[in-house]
Amino acid sequence: MASVDIVETFPSGAEVEKPPLLILDRVRAFLDSHRLGAGEVRARRIGEGGGSNFTFLLERDEGLFVLRRPPRPPLPPSAHDVVREARLQLAIGAAGFARLPEIVAVCEDEDVLGVPFYVMTYLDGVVVTEELPPGLEDERARRRLADDLVDTLVEIHAADVSTPALAAFARPGSYAERQVRRFSQLWGINKTREVPRVEEVGEWLAANLPDPLPETVVHGDFRLGNTMVALDEPSRIVAVLDWEMGAIGDPRADLGYLLATYSEPGGPPNPLGTSPVTALPGFPSRSELAARYVARSGREVESLPWFEGLALWKAAVFCEAIYGRYLRGELGAEDERAARFEQGVPYLADAAAEAIARTG
Q1: 23 - beta bridge partners?
Q2: Which fold, 6-122?
Q3: H-helix or E-strand containing 249?
Q4: Which one, of 109, 7, 21, 15, lies nearest residue 331 by Cα?
Q5: 3-class DSSP state for residue 275?
Q6: Phi, psi angle pair for 86, to nearest 5°
Q7: What does the domain layout of the chain look like in residue ranges?
Q8: Would you call 198 helix, strand, or coil by DSSP?
Q9: 126-359 CATH, one of 3.40.50.300, 3.90.1200.10, 3.40.109.40, 2.30.130.10
Q10: Geometric angle at alpha carbon 47, from 185 and 286, rounded to 5°
């Protein structure tokens, strides 16, 4: 049996090992029903794979679009909810945050692809990961990019959460407490082996919750690699992507995550290995990022090491879920790198423990 992610028509059960991720004739019919382009549909997967929802570039004879859908079921409870992800982006866009792709259709009918999905307009930009695009050779341009990264986060946190569309995402109680409780539960679901440090850090976080700040929109995975920069001005961020972890909560969760996943010049790689380019000269230090956030937002950010520890601990739990899917053979061949989480999850848990050790 073959394992094929993209097929033209729905195959019989005997023809494939796993259900396809895209069925092109059904996608074409959905796009046609929403008057999104015309002609045949050609698709390829783009973006990072394995852990997040899957993203595909759809090329039609007339029109370019991006489709986002969850991984193959089964999925952990409340994870990979693309309908919620789409609605949050629509809500914060209506509240004035403009650095977003336009969502043009949401499909909740699981008869189309077996899961919900949504479709966005295509943005012609660059996602900065392991290499800098042309235009960022100059150290001053790199500094402008980092400054705009912080300013983008300030804009997200400035959205009015009392608007009805955003208020619908608010939950009672402490955001920090909910995060610790939820990811403690997910660890029990996700774990493939015993990693005592994960449970130790979770217990410490639960016992040492910081006093909350007034709530804002929280992206939940805010880092350079989840943004897109302009082709003609790569020091300017044109879109924030991957809102899967978005919520209404404590803004320090985003800043703590940004710092925990940021490699500063002259320092060691960050524990997640994300966006290593920020270690190059010209990019600011982690402390300078935090200082700019405070200056631009007017918000004090005490207890940041707690939120850095939370970010790394959540990453350990999330990566264990990816590792479990790898062990069960649920990932495509291109996601074999998930095998590294055998050592990566304990490493992240140790990094989280080091972060919370700085709290006091």
Answers
A1: 7
A2: Phosphorylase Kinase; domain 1 (3.30.200)
A3: strand 247-249
A4: 21
A5: coil
A6: -65, -45
A7: 6-122, 126-359
A8: helix
A9: 3.90.1200.10
A10: 70
One-letter amino acid of 145 = L
Query: pTM of the predicted model, to two decimals?
Result: 0.91
Backbone angles phi and psi of 238, in degrees to 5 = -105, -20
**CA–CA gap between residue 65 and residue 171 (Å, rounded):** 33
- Torsion, Cα of 263, 269, 273, 275 (10° steps): 30
Helix residue ranges, H only, the chain: 24-33, 82-94, 110-113, 139-158, 164-167, 175-190, 196-207, 252-260, 286-297, 304-327, 341-356
Amino acid letter for position 342: E
Separation between Cα atoms, residue 23 and residue 130, nearest integer Å: 32
Nearest CA to 123 out of 70, 66, 49, 52 is that of 66
**How many whole angstroms separate alpha carbon 326 and alpha carbon 246?**
25
53 contacts 80 by C-beta, under 8 angstroms: yes
Distance, CA of 87 to CA of 70 (rounded, Å):
15
As a whole number of angstroms, the distance between CA 309 and CA 355 comes to 5
Dist CA 283 CA 143 (whole Å): 5
Q: Are 56 and 70 in contact (CB under 8 A)?
A: no
> Digits of tens for pLDDT over the chain (360 positions)?
344 789 999 875 556 677 889 999 999 999 999 999 999 999 999 876 545 789 999 999 999 999 999 987 766 555 568 999 999 999 999 999 999 999 999 999 999 998 999 999 999 999 998 889 999 999 999 999 999 999 999 999 999 999 999 999 999 999 999 999 999 999 999 899 999 999 999 999 999 999 999 999 999 999 999 999 999 999 999 999 999 999 999 999 999 999 999 999 988 888 888 889 999 999 999 999 999 999 999 999 989 999 999 999 999 998 998 898 888 887 765 567 788 899 999 999 999 999 999 986
Strands 227-230 and 125-126: antiparallel
Q: Tokens 């499909």: give the residue.
A: 107
